[in-house]
Design brief:
heterodimer, A: 543 residues, alpha+beta, Uridine Diphospho-n-acetylenolpyruvylglucosamine Reductase, domain 2, Uridine Diphospho-n-acetylenolpyruvylglucosamine Reductase, domain 3, eight-stranded mixed β-sheet, five-stranded antiparallel β-sheet, 19 helices, globular, B: 372 residues, alpha/beta, four-stranded parallel β-sheet, 16 helices
């Protein structure tokens, strides 16, 4: 399998002979899995295809030329960088071209005005290192330090540090997009010259559409440049220590510290998040799932299970620890002040401070997800939402109850409520719910549970982040918006009328439900007989 | 991993390009420690297994590797040299007829980088460690093993171990990180035994020097006024954990039964080297960003440069750039292959020094070393 010969030859002239391939071994290297996000799910098996070819452009101009060729010859393509999203960032149709953007490694920093401008080949660990050398920091999103910052911010970008540093979409100061017809569109402050200090620029700004809440997985165009806000950090650069996997950053004790507090109950956990936000202290506030603590303590997968299976529903229910990171951004005195405020609040709420190590194991440089699927090798974040604190915790309870019905095949987690944290200085609560399974078992229940969470959110009036490209659009669209699905399809039609860019996003999950027999029993909404693809697309792919 | 699975399932066939994908890789272990951190995946062993399969299917090894393997089979060294292996020994070096320690310099230091064999031997003399050489010494078989020719490598391992055992010596000291990995890890792997079952201890010159320094028999009190950065050679860092044979099965949630103590590069000689360097008066150690188990490989080892010289040069130049960015005046490493590879890419006239650890330690012990 390959892409059309004529198209291949023209793209070869654009990127050069050594940066395009349709060799079967190369193409297999770019297939989805094994490992990590959605590994071994029905979606992975049913929807992903080995690409027909891979091209590696080195500039926006080359990307522009490639997508023009794809438009002319009808070659579907998928923009690709570091591939965290597993099956969803790989081709879903035969004979597709992967446009791998790793060669685009442009990186500028303006240390004085606290922003960077990067291309998709730049990863977080590089950014964080350079930022820290200049007294600044960024949030390394949950995808991990090895992910492309551009891809991560287009789709996610959350972390406990979002408490202080703001929502991911707000940190996108400017974007350069290559539309499926090859037009370059610059948005935000990049629309107006080369000074991306502010997020706003002249004219209409489409950053919200392209990024949305959780992104559309590249189905509206290819982001080739992004200006990202950084924030001032304290002046001492934390030092790496230890040997993998027991590595951490040694923190300057008078400026940065993690503190753990045992709270009397979940109400006190919630109150702590709210009160600390009101007092505007701290750099991060979070309550993590208990199994993460077992991951942190475990030597390996077997050790994890030895530790985790000692837990019970009671021990998980009673795990009421709030983790707070204090950062003396301006001075040691500010750090002391924050510590005293924190201590007063926790004392009032009955919190007891526990002993902690003067180090950071994950959030500054590594982020969590690189290690958080150790126990099974397969995971998905079923949902992650921004809500009020009370609503976020309520959604945790509903998710836990639903998950219990699908365990097994899901990993036993003793009714863990998920991950909570404060965001935007306590103005928002964040909730994320994760699931794990053994990819060699029957994973029908995993696929079903994933869609059932959407139905649960609709039924209970919860917000959900996983719309559009992540769940069946025809299930979620009519219930959120109103007419969310119609808007998304109109946007797709406007941006990519021929559906060349990562098809069949944003209808991929609808297509999956249609194709997978085991999804029929949970499909109680009314999907249209024919999904609304353009005619040319239907003829070309036979879907 | 993906390619390996498809090969096993017969979905792809051997081709020149597939061989290039599998062999254009220094097998440095960086991906192994990285992926084991997340998923306990055995990436390093998978990559080695792909090469073994390539040879078994008569698709591999690569032409340059084949030539060197033939050289080893014919002459016992990688260069097909007919010169004696101990041509590096000068009058000022005291080599015993019989001793508890055997010094094994390896092919590169025996024939090309003789000054490094000499500095290591002189360091052992300085530390008061009596040593002998292996009678009928021959190549460690690194290229054969790394190319996937396990039959040849196993035969070399058996001969070398028998020779070593026949000396009655308790310790084998090597100064090459590649030889160190072979003797300590890959010989036991080839023979399906534990490292501890070898019957003797394998030490790198770093460990020999460290032990002597700790015991007070080696003094490092002569000033070496130099700002240095240290490059962790793969063979003495992430690749040198002891080998233990394992047989088990995958079970629920991907766990394995019986359990396995995974090799994560924790036994690397990271701290001993740094402790030694920091003990030297006048010497200032400046660390690179990527250090210890995360160090960038120079791609000079495991026969990589034989068939992919551009890859080796690229990687060495990139690492050298990182080293120079620390502001150091010299790079110190612990393998003649790294020394050689870095020296090859260094620009003419660049005053930045490339040193083996034995050269620096010998200077600190009061001798100027021997720069041939």
């Amino acid at each position: 399998m390959s892409i059309q010969k004529d198209a291949y030859e023209i793209i070869k002239k654009i990127v050069g002979e050594t940066h395009i391939t349709d060799d079967p071994a190369d193409c297999i290297g770019y297939r989805s899995g094994p490992g990590g996000y959605e590994n071994g799910t029905g979606y992975d098996r049913v929807m992903t295809r080995i690409p027909g070819a891979i091209a590696m452009p080195e500039s926006s101009e080359q990307v522009q030329q490639i997508v023009k060729v794809c438009a002319r010859y009808g070659v579907p393509y998928v923009p690709y960088s570091t591939g965290f999203y597993g099956p969803r960032s790989h081709p879903h149709v035969d004979n597709a071209l992967i446009i791998d953007l790793k060669r685009m490694r442009g990186f500028e920093i303006d240390a004085k005005h606290y922003y960077i401008v990067v291309e998709p080949g730049v990863i977080y660990s590089q950014i964080q290192q350079v930022c820290m050398e200049h007294g600044a920091y960024v949030v390394v999103g949950g995808g991990g330090a090895q992910t492309s910052a551009v891809a991560n911010l287009l789709n996610d970008g959350w972390s406990p540090l979002s408490y202080r540093i703001g929502l991911p979409q707000r940190r996108i100061l400017g974007l350069e997009m290559i539309m499926p017809d090859g037009e370059i569109v610059r948005m935000g402050s990049l629309a107006d010259g080369e000074d991306p200090f502010w997020g706003e620029g002249i004219g209409p700004d489409l950053r919200g559409i392209l990024r949305g809440y959780t992104g559309l997985l590249g189905c509206l165009g290819i982001c080739t440049r992004m200006a990202i806000k950084t924030l001032p950090f304290q002046p001492v650069t934390p030092k790496p220590q230890g040997i993998s996997p027991d590595t951490s950053l040694s923190l300057p004790e008078k400026r940065v510290k993690w503190l753990n507090f045992t709270m009397p109950d979940l109400d006190a956990v919630q109150r702590a998040h709210i009160e600390l936000g009101h007092a505007e202290v701290g750099g991060a506030i979070t309550k993590v799932p208990l199994f993460w603590r077992a991951i942190a303590k475990a030597e390996d997968k077997e050790d994890f299970w030895r530790l985790w299976l000692k837990e019970t529903e009671d021990s998980v229910r009673n795990f009421c620890i709030v983790r707070v990171m204090l950062i003396g951004y301006t001075s040691e005195e500010q750090f002391d002040y924050d510590y005293h405020v924190l201590s007063d609040i926790m004392k009032e709420l009955g919190g007891i401070e526990r002993r902690t190590k003067p180090s950071d194991e994950s959030w500054f440089k590594n982020a969590d997800s690189a290690g958080m699927w150790l126990m099974t090798g397969s995971y998905v974040s079923v949902d992650y939402i921004m809500e009020s604190y009370t609503q976020a915790f309520r959604q945790g309870v509903s998710s836990m109850e639903l998950k219990d019905r699908y365990t097994p095949p899901l990993m036993p987690d003793f009714k863990d409520l998920g991950w909570f944290q404060g965001c935007e200085m306590g103005h928002l609560g964040y909730f994320e719910f994760l699931m794990y399974w053994d990819q060699r078992e029957d994973t029908a229940g995993v696929d079903q549970f994933y869609v059932e969470t959407s139905k649960m959110c609709i039924e209970n009036g919860y917000y959900t982040s996983l719309l559009g490209a992540h769940q069946p659009l025809m299930l979620t669209g009519p219930k959120y918006g109103p007419g969310y699905h119609e808007w998304i399809l109109k946007l797709k039609k406007e941006f990519d009328p021929e559906w060349m860019c990562h098809p069949p996003m944003p209808l991929a999950h609808d297509e999956f439900v249609k194709r997978a027999p085991w999804m029929k029993e949970v499909c109680n909404w009314n999907p249209p007989e024919d999904l609304p693809y353009p005619d040319r697309w239907k003829r070309q792919t036979g879907v | 991993m993906r390619i390996g699975l498809h090969l096993l399932e017969g979905e792809i066939e051997w081709s020149d390009h597939l061989l290039e994908l599998i062999y254009a890789d220094p097998l440095c272990g960086a991906c192994d420690v990285g992926c084991k951190r997340n998923l306990d995946l055995e990436i390093g062993l998978t990559l080695e297994a792909l090469r073994v399969k390539a040879v078994q299917d008569k698709a591999g090894p690569m032409p340059g590797q084949k030539k060197v393997i033939e050289n080893i089979k014919k002459t016992g060294n990688i260069y097909a040299s007919s010169k004696p292996r101990n041509g590096w020994v000068t009058k000022d070096i005291n080599v015993c007829e019989k001793a508890d320690t055997v010094y094994y310099p390896g092919c590169l230091s025996s024939f090309e980088k003789k000054e490094l064999a000499r500095t290591s031997a002189m360091l052992l003399n300085e530390a008061g460690v009596d040593f002998m050489l292996l009678p009928s010494e021959s190549c460690c078989g690194n290229v054969a093993f790394s190319a996937g020719d396990v039959e040849t490598a196993r035969s070399i391992a058996e001969k070398n171990i028998a020779n070593m055992r026949a000396t009655g010596a308790k310790t084998l000291v090597v100064s090459c990180a590649e030889c160190y990995r072979m003797w300590k890890v890959d010989y036991p792997k080839l023979l399906k035994i534990r490292t501890s079952d070898l019957g003797f201890e394998v030490k790198h010159i770093i460990e020999a020097a460290y032990d002597a320094w700790k015991a007070g028999s080696l003094e490092l009190d002569s000033p070496v006024n130099l700002q240095v950065t240290y490059h962790d050679s793969c063979g003495v860092s992430r690749l040198c954990d002891d080998w233990e044979p394992y047989k088990g099965e995958r079970g629920w949630m991907g766990t394995i039964e019986p359990g396995l103590k995974r090799r994560r590069g924790r036994q690397g000689l990271y701290l001993k080297t740094r402790e030694l360097l920091e003990a030297i008066p006048g010497l200032e150690l400046r660390e690179m960003q990527r250090t210890r188990e995360n160090a960038l490989c120079c791609a000079g080892g495991r026969g990589t440069a034989l068939d992919f010289p551009e890859l080796s040069s690229f990687s060495a130049a990139e690492r050298l750039r990182e080293a120079e960015s620390t502001g150091a005046e010299a790079l110190v490493t612990a393998c003649p292959w790294c020394v050689s590879n870095f020296s090859n890419v260094k620009q003419d006239g660049d005053p930045f020094e490339i040193n083996d650890i034995s050269q620096i330690l010998l200077r600190a012990a009061g001798q100027g070393g021997d720069k041939e």
